[in-house]
């Protein structure tokens, strides 16, 4: 575990001690603020029955910046080290493959979690600044941040896999965003084909939009937990196989 902690700390320094990490944090914080202000403007102009949390996480801007988070935080994890030759050196050191893979994934998830702290603060500041009755329930706020953590666990693992497959950060980023966009649009299959076709329950089950709608409404369902964590484990398993293959090939 000592080696795992050392490797994780090394990756965390790559996020928090470089300008690139702070640029990502600033970008996401600004986008979160714009999404919240857009939702507040909607509340001011037109009375809505949904909570402020629900509207904030359903603005058109949300999915744009949300999906772009993952290629940004994962594209360099393996591909940059493969390009520079340091991955080969690391894999010949007395460390296990799983320590390399999970240390990078853990660091990425810690940084990803950090990205959502400003968003949580913004909702709390809204309550403090307006001094009005809450425009959202604790269940809706907790559900929203629970589902973004679940989706983040799965999508970060997919980004790790994409980064492990190539030595180019650009290709890794394009591959990641491509997979996530495909996954996103699969959520619209039932809207196109209707609810009556045989595969509708499956597409509901894998739909990120469906789960986001449910959790931001203040409800909890264990099925998305199983789905996203299973997807994360499967992507990490494939990442392990790719990295382990490179280790024995070299």
TrEMBL record:
Domain of life: Bacteria
TM ranges: 12-31, 51-73, 105-123, 135-158, 170-189, 225-243
The species this protein was found in: Luteolibacter yonseiensis
GO cellular component entries: plasma membrane
Keywords: Cell membrane, Membrane, Transmembrane, Transmembrane helix
PANTHER family: MEMBRANE COMPONENT OF ABC TRANSPORTER YHHJ-RELATED (PTHR30294), MULTIDRUG ABC TRANSPORTER PERMEASE YBHS-RELATED (PTHR30294:SF29)
Region forming the signal peptide: none
Membrane topology classification: Multi-pass membrane protein
GO molecular function: ABC-type transporter activity
Places the protein is found: Cell membrane
InterPro entries membership: ABC-2_transporter_component
Record protein name field: ABC transporter permease
Main location: membrane
